[in-house]
Amino acid sequence: MQAALIIREKEKLRQKKFRRGRFELPSHVATKEIGPFPPYPPHNWVSIQFLLFF
Known about the structure:
With 54 residues, this protein is an all-alpha fold. It contains two helices and no strands. The longest helix has 23 residues.
């Protein structure tokens, strides 16, 4: 009986360790990777300006 209680307590501590890392960061910090920005100006804008000016 005592061994079962010790095992449960160790499991609870282990679960807390895994959860802790996510909450250490403030809420306004992004954790996902953001893809690269597209080129500016877009290619279709360049072709429209070329047609309008010439």
